[in-house]
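Hello everyone,

My group is preparing for a crystallization screen and wants a predicted model to guide construct design. The compound we'll soak is pyridoxal-5'-phosphate. Before spending weeks at the bench, it would help to have a computed complex in hand. I've included the protein sequence and the ligand's SMILES below. Output in C-alpha cell form would be ideal because that's what our pipeline reads.
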Amino acid sequence: MVYQYTKNRELFQRALKVIPQGVPGHLGPSNGCAIPFDAFPVFAERAEGTYFWDADGNRFIDYMCAYGPNLLGYGDAEVDEAAVRQLRQGNCITSPHRILVDFAELLTETTGKDWTFFAKNGNDVTTLAVMTARCATGRSKIVLIKGGYHGVAPWTQQFGKPGILEEDVANNIVISWNSAAELEAAIARYPNQIAAFIAAPYHHPIFADSELPADGYWQTVRKLCTQHGIVLIIDDIRCGFRLDIAGSDHYYGFRADLITFCKALANGYNVSALCGVDSLRDAVSDVFYTGSYWLSAVPFAAGIACLTKLKRDGIIAKLRTTALKLQSGLRDVAKQHGRELLITGEPPLWSMRHTGDDDFYFHQSWVSECVRRGVFFTNHHNHFLNAAVTDADIAVTLDIADEAYKAVAVE
Ligand SMILES: Cc1ncc(COP(=O)(O)O)c(C=O)c1O
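Reply:
Good plan to model first. Here are the C-alpha cells for the complex, ready for your pipeline.
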C-alpha cells in the first residue's frame, strides 16, 4: 500500500491562498528537494521519537529530523519536562531568567571556548560572527566556500538573486572547498583586508556529494588565519552535536576562534549560539545585536537538558554506530538490485545518490517510492540521524528500500 495525501493537498491549496508559496523556505516544496512533489507529504500532524505522522495519518521514519533539530528523538521526555518546568516559572521576562547563566556556563565549558552569545536562528549567529570579526580586525572582506550555506541574510547570498544588491556581497571572496592554495592566493591579493574565513567543518552542498576535509586542510587554514590576523569561524549549525560534543573544530583537530550552533542545540527548541575566544570578547560586546525572544528561558532549559543527556548517555558515539549500520544495509539492498548507492559525508549527516544516474532521475524515483511507503528521505540534501532510531526501524527501512527498488523497476 502506498500512501495517499488527500488532506495534505487540501491543506496546501488553502495555504497557497494565504501564505506565499504555501510553505515557504526549506520545509516547503519549492526548495527543490521534494521531487516529484506528489510523492511527499506537506503538513505534519504530530511527531514522536524518530517518527512523524502527516495530515493524512501516514507514519514516516524520519531521516531529515526537521533538517537537523531532532537529535534525541521528537518529544524527548527529559528535554520536554525541563522545558515545561521552565515555562511554569517564566519564559520571556523583562530581566532574563537566571537560567541564561547556567546555559552559557554549560555551553562555554562544553565547547572549550571563553564566552557564549545566544540568539534564535543560525543566520543570527553567522551574521554576528562576521560582524564580530569585522569589528575586531577593522577589515571588511570575508572568505567563504563556493556552495556553502550560512543562512539567508543578504551577505550570505549571491548578487543576481532576487533582492540582493551588488554591495551586499561586494566584500565576499568565494573560494573552493579544500583549497588552502586558494586561501593563500586570496590573502596575497587582499593583504590586511580579510576579516574572516567562514566555513562549515566539512562541505555538504545540495545537489552534490559531501566532501570531508583533506588531510591537514584545517590545520593549514588555522595556521594561515593566525599568521595573517584572520578570524577563523566554523559554522557548526548543521554538524554541531552530531560529530563531537565539544564542536566539530575539536572533531577535526583544530580550534576555531568563533563557532556557531543552532539546530541540534536544544532538540528542537529555538535557540542558537555563538561561542568564541577571549580575544574577541570586546569586539562581540561592541556589536549592537539583540532580538525580542533571544533570551527566552524555555529553550535554555531544553538546551541544558539536551546537552546533559548527550554527554551522560554517550549519544554521539551511538549515532555513528547506528548510521553505519543503516548505511551498510542500504548499500547492500542497492547491490541486490544491481545498483551502487554512493554515500558521502560523515555518517550521522550523510548524503546519498546512485552512481551512473547523471540526471538524478533514478535516484529521485527511488527516494519518492521510499517516501510513499513511510521512509522519509530527501533527494539532494544531506540527511540527519536521531538517537531514537532502533534496529527495528533500520529493518523496516531496508525492507521499504527493497520494495522501492522493485517499484522503480516496474515503472
Ligand atoms: C551550515 C548552516 N549554516 C547556517 C544555517 C542557517 O540557519 P537558520 O536556518 O537557522 O538561520 C544553516 C541552516 O540550514 C546551515 O545548515
